[in-house]
């Protein structure tokens, strides 16, 4: 049976807030994983751009004694070359973690706000944010 307009609005706000928090949790997890995995690329490209005379040309001691323009260019190229495999590794780590934690199953449909008697945990879903007693044998791709 449909809910009253005010009750529907209140439930929509609750479900929207919960879905926003789940989205922010996914975004934070993705940001942390990508930052950690791509740190070598970030460091190599940073030092390459910092010591190149046509870009930043830092007056740091290591730029004058160790890195010239050719080696700075090599660092920049190396950084961009190793970025592609590291992006694949970071995405694989994020996907496996999100699947193991079942984060994508925590999103709730807005039909819970419109109709009374909806369940927070649909049959066959076993996410940590769902009610207890749900089936935990569900595959993520189903």
UniProtKB/TrEMBL annotation:
<comment type="similarity">
    <text>Belongs to the TMEM88 family.</text>
</comment>
<dbReference type="GO" id="GO:0005886">
    <property type="term" value="C:plasma membrane"/>
</dbReference>
<feature type="transmembrane region" description="Helical">
    <location>
        <begin position="74"/>
        <end position="95"/>
    </location>
</feature>
<feature type="transmembrane region" description="Helical">
    <location>
        <begin position="21"/>
        <end position="49"/>
    </location>
</feature>
<keyword id="KW-0472">Membrane</keyword>
<keyword id="KW-0812">Transmembrane</keyword>
<dbReference type="InterPro" id="IPR033355">
    <property type="entry name" value="TMEM88"/>
</dbReference>
<protein>
    <submittedName>
        <fullName>TMM88 protein</fullName>
    </submittedName>
</protein>
<keyword id="KW-1133">Transmembrane helix</keyword>
<dbReference type="GO" id="GO:0030165">
    <property type="term" value="F:PDZ domain binding"/>
</dbReference>
